[in-house]
Amino acid sequence: MEDKPEEQNRRKSERIDAAFTLTYSIEKSYTLRVSLGLVDNIETIMINLSDLGMAIMTNYDIPVGVQLYIKFDLIDMHLSGDERWRSMKINGEAVSNVSLPNENHRIGIRFDKISEEDKAAIRNFVLCNKFPHK
């Protein structure tokens, strides 16, 4: 999925398509989790990633403004050894929700709490995977 030119211009950080499996849970509000039928550690797929945020596809209608706790493993095949794999634990806020076919939703997430090390690893991943390597 490619961003439209106006979306690219408004982004503060470069984003690339990514398809990592991740788990998320609603950070706060047990009432909201129950009303949405959510449990902790819901598994879903990441659509894209940058050091400032990501988009995911889920079948839950997550309202804008909800705080999420996200966990995923960043695997960068351009690195070697232990540097190739990094476990990420990030807090973020749902900033957009677009309804998709089959009752799915594309949720845009802006990172609120991310370590500088995780941010640097994501930034490096984006730069290394931006263009196909020959």
Structure characterization notes:
The chain is of the alpha+beta class and 134 residues long. The chain has one domain: Thrombin, subunit H, CATH 2.40.10.220. Strands 2-3-4-7-6-5 form a six-stranded antiparallel barrel. A hairpin with a 3-residue loop joins strand 3 and strand 4. The longest helix has 14 residues.
Residue-averaged pLDDT: 83
The major beta sheet can be summarized as:
6 strands, antiparallel, barrel
Residue stretches low in confidence (pLDDT < 50, at least 5 long) are 1-9
Q: What's the assembly state of these chains?
A: single chain
The helicity comes to: 10-25%
String of helices and strands: HEEHEEEEEH
Counted beta strands? 7
**CATH H-tier superfamily:** predicted glycosyltransferase like domains
Shape: globular
Helix-and-strand structural type:
alpha+beta
CATH architecture: Beta Barrel
Number of helices: 3
Radius of gyration: 15 Å
Report the β-strand fraction as a percent range. Answer: 35-45%
Strand order of the largest sheet: 2-3-4-7-6-5
First-to-last CA distance: 23 Å
Summarize the helices and strands and which ones pair or pack.
Elements: H1 5-10, E1 16-17, E2 21-26, H2 30-36, E3 42-49, E4 53-58, E5 67-75, E6 85-99, E7 105-113, H3 116-129
Quick overview of this protein structure:
The chain has 134 residues and is of the alpha+beta class. The chain has helices at residues 5-10, 30-36, 116-129, and strands at 16-17, 21-26, 42-49, 53-58, 67-75, 85-99, 105-113.
